[in-house]
Write a structure and sequence with these properties.
Elements lengths: L4 E5 L4 H13 L3 E6 L12 E4 L5 H11 L3 E4 L6 H6 L1 H22 L2 E7 L21 H14 L6 E6 L2 E2 L10 H10 L4 E4 L3 E2 L2 E2 H14 L3 E4 L6 E2 H12 L6 E4 L19 H7 L6 H14 L2
Parallel strand pairs: 1-2, 1-4, 2-3, 4-5, 5-6, 6-11, 7-10, 8-13
Antiparallel strand pairs: 9-12
Helix pairs in contact: 1-7, 2-4, 4-5, 6-8
C-alpha cells in the first residue's frame, strides 16, 4: 500500500482527533489536520495543522491547492440536530455548501473524498439499515446530510465514499462537547436524576472504530457508501442502563420517558442501527461490542488521570 497525503477537516472534533492519532501511530501517510479555529490537539507536535473553514470557498481552494492531498476525510459538520432545525442557514452553510466547496476542490485535483454522514438520513421505520436502503430524513439536519450525499453522488467525482455512522462516543483533548456515555456516567456519579428515552434505538459507535473504518476506506481506495457503526443495537435507555451497570452506578436515578414528552425542535428516527456486512466484507471493518467499547473508553479515562 502506497503512502498517501491525507487532509482531515474538523480535526478538532472527536472523530477528527482520533484520525490524527491513528494516522500518525499506525501508518506512514502524510497528514494535514484542518479545523475552524486553532488546533486543540496539544499532546503531540508530529503533524501539520492549518486553520480552514470549509464554508469559505477561497480558503478551501487555497489550502487544498497548497497541500495537494490524495484523500480528504470530511468530518466537519453542524451536528446538533435541534440547532440545525432552529438555525437552518448555518446548517446549510456547513453541511451543504461546505461539502460543495470540498467536492469542487476534489474535482479540480482528482482527490478521493471520504465524507461522514449519519443514520438520520433514514426515517427509522425499518432499521437496521443497509447501504442501499432508501433515505427519508425526518429533520432538517438529516435532510442536510442527505442533500450533501446527493451532491457527492451527482458530482462526477471519480473517487468518493460516504461513511454513515451512529452516536459516536470516546475521549479526546479539549472536547468542545460531550457524548452520551460520558454525560450519563458523569450525571449518575453525581447522583443526578436523568430522563432517558426508551423508544429510540441506536448502535453506539466507538470513535476509534470509526476512525479505523475511515482509514480502511482511504487505504483500500474504496468507492461508494459504507455503514460504519458499533455492532450492538439497543434503546437509549438500555444504553444508559448498561453504562450504569458497567461502572457500578445507581440505576434508580434513570427515569424512562417517551420522545414525545421532550418537545424537541427536530424529529428523531425511532429505530436505526446498521447492517455492517458490506463494511465487514469489503473493508475488514470489525467494531468492538458495546461492552468492549466501554472497557476501551475506561482505559482512555484512566490514562488521563
Amino acid at each position: 500500500m502506497s503512502a498517501k497525503r491525507i487532509l482531515i477537516t474538523g480535526s478538532n472534533g472527536l472523530l477528527g482527533q482520533k484520525l490524527i492519532h491513528l494516522i500518525l501511530d499506525c501508518s506512514n501517510h502524510t497528514l494535514l489536520a484542518t479545523s475552524k479555529g486553532s488546533n486543540r490537539v496539544q499532546s503531540r507536535e508530529d503533524f501539520s495543522f492549518t486553520s480552514m473553514d470549509i464554508t469559505d470557498q477561497a480558503n478551501v481552494i487555497d489550502v487544498v491547492a497548497n497541500f495537494r492531498p490524495d484523500v480528504i476525510i470530511n468530518t466537519a459538520a453542524m451536528t446538533n440536530v435541534d440547532a440545525c432545525e432552529s438555525n437552518k442557514d448555518a446548517c446549510v452553510s456547513m453541511n451543504i455548501n461546505g461539502v460543495e466547496n470540498l467536492v469542487n476542490a476534489c474535482l479540480a485535483h482528482n482527490i478521493h473524498l471520504i465524507h461522514l454522514s449519519t443514520d438520520f438520513v433514514f426515517d427509522g421505520d425499518a432499521g437496521p439499515y443497509k447501504e442501499d436502503d432508501t433515505p427519508n430524513p425526518l429533520s432538517f439536519y438529516g435532510q442536510s446530510k442527505y442533500d450533501a450525499e446527493q451532491i457527492i453522488l451527482n458530482s462526477g467525482l471519480k473517487n468518493w465514499s460516504i461513511a454513515r455512522t451512529i452516536i459516536i462516543y470516546g475521549l479526546v483533548e479539549n472536547m468542545s462537547r460531550s457524548n452520551i456515555i460520558l454525560w450519563a456516567k458523569s450525571a449518575l456519579e453525581k447522583g443526578s436524576v436523568i430522563n432517558i428515552v426508551d423508544d429510540q434505538f441506536r448502535s453506539p459507535t466507538y470513535a476509534n472504530d470509526l476512525a479505523k473504518g475511515c482509514l480502511l476506506i482511504a487505504e483500500k481506495e474504496k468507492n461508494g457508501i459504507f455503514h460504519l457503526s458499533g455492532k450492538d443495537s439497543m434503546s437509549i435507555l438500555e444504553l444508559v442502563e448498561r453504562v450504569a451497570d458497567f461502572y457500578g452506578l445507581e440505576k434508580s436515578n434513570i427515569n424512562p420517558i417517551k420522545t414525545s414528552s421532550l418537545n424537541q425542535a427536530a424529529k428523531r428516527p425511532p429505530v436505526t442501527g446498521f447492517i455492517l456486512n458490506k463494511a465487514n466484507q469489503e473493508l475488514g471493518y470489525s467494531p468492538l461490542s458495546f461492552n468492549e467499547g466501554l472497557k476501551a473508553l475506561t482505559e482512555e479515562l484512566e490514562n488521563i488521570k
